Amino acid sequence: MKKYILISLLTFQFASAIEKDSLGTKYHFRNYSPIPEKIMCDACGCSASGGSMGFASMLNSNFVGVRYFNQEYKSRNGLYSNSPWYKENYNTTQIWARIPVYKNIQITALIPYHFHNRETATEEQSISGLGDITVLAMYRLYQTHKDSTVFVHTFQVGGGIKFPTGKFDEANNLGTVNQSYQIGTGSLDYQLVTEYIIKRKRIGLNTTLNYTIKTTNDKFYRYGNQFNYSGTFFYLHGKNNFSFAPQIGFAGEVYESNYQHKQILNDTAGNILFGKIGFEMGKKKLSVGANTMLPINQNLSNGNLEANYRWSINVNYSL
Fold this sequence. Notes:
Blueprint: H1 2-17, E1 63-75, E2 86-102, E3 105-119, E4 124-130, E5 134-143, E6 152-162, E7 189-200, E8 203-213, E9 221-222, E10 226-235, E11 237-239, E12 242-255, E13 259-260, E14 263-264, E15 270-283, E16 286-300, E17 305-318
Antiparallel strand pairs: 1-2, 1-17, 2-3, 3-4, 3-5, 5-6, 6-7, 7-8, 8-10, 9-13, 10-12, 11-12, 12-15, 13-14, 15-16, 16-17
């Protein structure tokens, strides 16, 4: 069923992208074309590179920056109706950059450092270290001429690889509901992404799709494939050297079941829908941004895992 959903959404995005209009528009943020927002985690921690927070600046087409994001969850073993809930906190500091390599091709690199902690029935635990490095490439397949349309359309496709640079420790999964309390997945994973942007003067909509194909690591553990989707309305304002871009939207995540020794692990599939709001502002080559996400609806690990919130801040330097 997920495959049919993905094909249908891809078809919709492509059909929208080739639509043309007949009048002109001109706008200060003519280089805005962020790489798709991606949710790189099996509910939260181990492979989180963006935590649904996005992978590009709204104000800078090409940049290098530092971003911090935090995710809070709670989990319980579910053995009894009154089983206690325990907090889990996932933190990531990330170096990220977006660099053009050819006329219609951009490369994004994400280098995360994770430091997570959680409560258990007997103690508080913490782990930290370099996470899985991700490299994405996007190709701009179609874009309308900005001086000849009422609406500006941009359609991009691409893919990427997440390298197993973060440590995967089997002991972190023993006796726990959340199987993502890890620094890395230990696996080489592949990304398929699409992005469609439509703009009318200062107002626009960004829609993204992302499907992650996950492989088995050397401990014979495989996280389930993952489908992500998002839509973000934005308003772009600029005056002199100052720029401001508020945004509001949604992001959804669908997780397939995990496997160990080729055996399916029960209660590891799920889905979640977030509402999100944020902004980015900049002056000359420097910009700062913030983003907050709250769950609207969720069903993770058969109800034994719940997301409380996600938020991020970033500082970028335009290249």
